[in-house]
């Protein structure tokens, strides 16, 4: 495609009423020095996390689950970010591509690290052995927290090439996916592998909304006013503010270098710092084109996550600030036209930086040397930009790039987009089940014939839903249930009569062995919250050995759950409903009637979720659970014949299938 010049784009935008462009080559920037990183180290849990901590802070399990990052805010997946940047570099003017390549070689001369010989490597296969500049934008934000952090990881982190290889495989799998379940499984496998390669993968994106566009307050807002709002002291950290912060710094560093005064010994480091800041900025510019990140960052954690996921998959009709309408999708659903659209804006952003390197931009800068390190503003920990970054002239200089980005959705109120919910947060619910089970024998020592019976269950649940923490294959569901159960008599009537029970059921994820989070949670919550995060995230995604991750198919979702859930049934057969136990040699009929209490324990092995639907406040689903268990006597007393000895009883091994209907109402 022929490159649109900055002048042509500027004229087009001015015709649509977006004013304030300066001439290319006379961009005026007034930048202050970066504020100390300590100014941005205010940690804050999400509203949902604060609510849960207050309500259930004393519960060890809930403490573990609250430790999970509640809103992972990834936009395009790694290969999509890399493809966008690769396309943008290829579309630069020939002289600009040549300049970028020279700058890359100069930056690489300081420390080759994992850097490729060429600025972009279009032909990388499934086993990348180096990182090109396009990979920097994918590592930014999702696998690093600042420009400085990103550069350090790109050069020296031993795990970063594993991330690139996992992502290369994901690209092939997404290209081959023809059904939704195939795409979901590809993302599931990739996320699990990325979490293993990069233990901070999930936790980086959970602390704020840096990857989302700020919602607009009204429909009349123009780009400069919106940018000023996004950079405001009262605005939550957002994608546009992050892009502006780092892009302005890249322009400033490049302009300082073009003015001279940089020693030959430090020149390559200054070049590398500018390239790193620009790559970090581009990640968030690219995020601005993902549908789920345009829909707005308001609402509680569950609503933000659900809205994000829905629009990324199903698409959203949007219009750019320059008036171009289009339909956007998002994470793992990128089409060629989506890459083309985002790449055009990325190309023009790169072109601005390259113009600054060429000395074509006039930049007003404070006194001081050109930085030899990228900026250290930490997007994983900061909640807001300082509010003083970039004058209106600075912003107007970047409007040619901003004009190509989507106009964000409105905030809460009249005209808001429909919102959707992920299954996150505390809930109360009802559960009913129909079961059929087999018994290997009866309670009596002479009752060795197998039999079967059926039953009905009903219960009330209270718990916390954290299904979909990382992706739809995640499952950090935890609940406690109390209910009742009615069983039919066994097929061999003498084996087991009809009886009733009080039931309890408990569920929680585990890291390596069932219950380990219950033990580790209270300790790590006070000693190493970071370690608890890692354990909880891995537990939610199948455990340390991820054999319990959900598997999507065209016939429903399957998941091994052995050890995650246990059901208890407390049977009480009093003297009014005695059980007959064969006792040879006990007159008059070689049988004894006993009042028998027993405890049946069942362990679901597999879940086959046939369907699940949910709205903003409630969800319902139907699943099949094969299970194994045992039924053991707990208390026995003889009813007749009077004076007969208490018979010796044995434990019954059980196994069956439960058809479960689950309804939940989310409290918040």
Layout: helices, strands, pairs:
Layout: H1 6-15, H2 47-56, H3 60-66, H4 78-90, H5 94-108, H6 133-139, H7 147-156, H8 160-176, H9 180-197, H10 223-230, H11 239-258, H12 264-287, H13 291-294, H14 301-314, E1 316-319, E2 325-328, H15 336-357, H16 392-402, E3 424-439, E4 451-466, E5 478-487, E6 499-507, H17 516-527, H18 529-540, E7 551-553, E8 556-560, E9 565-573, E10 579-582, E11 591-604, E12 606-614, E13 618-640, E14 652-666
Antiparallel strand pairs: 1-2, 3-4, 3-14, 4-5, 5-6, 6-9, 7-8, 8-12, 9-11, 10-11, 11-13, 12-13, 13-14
Total number of helices: 18
- Average pLDDT number: 85
The largest sheet has its strands arranged as 3-4-5-6-9-11-13-14
Low-confidence stretches: 1-58
Description of the structure:
- This protein has 668 residues and is an alpha+beta fold.
- The chain has two domains: 73-402, no CATH class; 425-443 and 451-491 and 501-571 and 602-627 and 652-666, no CATH class.
- The protein is 35% helix and 21% strand.
- The protein has 18 helices and 14 strands.
- It has an eight-stranded antiparallel beta barrel with strand order 3-4-5-6-9-11-13-14.
- Helix 3 (60-66) packs across helix 17, helix 10 packs across helix 16 (392-402) and helix 11 packs parallel to helix 15.
